[in-house]
Please model this.
Amino acid sequence: MLRKFLPLSAVLLAGACAAGQTIEVPVTGSLGEKAPFRGVARASTNSPLGVYLVQTADERLTCHGSYNAADVTPRIIVAVSCQDGRYGAIELLRSIDLMSGTGKGMLNDGTPVRVAFGEKAGGEKAGGEKTGG
Model:
């Protein structure tokens, strides 16, 4: 009986590796003093590019960007673009596991940005939700 399942398990394992794994962590923060936001950051094991999307609590503004998910340094700079045309950069300081941290930056109109992600955002244990595909 075990011999019948070994080839099947090898095929399933190969499929899981080929499909990669997506890791998602929560993101929270604020634009200025009166615009809290929340969203998610996602990275996949089969791409060095990670993406994030956040929306203000009143759902009037969405901001997004991408980052080098393969970078293993604790400090990274992440570009941000908002649907209202504003843009800027955020300096993130990541914890030793690289799955949580905090950051701050500024938009082109001078609006300060503060951000927390992973466990620092009050989310799940670092690593977040893991899904196939």
Q: What stands out?
A: The radius of gyration is 18 Å. The longest strand covers residues 21-31. The mean pLDDT is 82. The chain has one helix and nine strands.
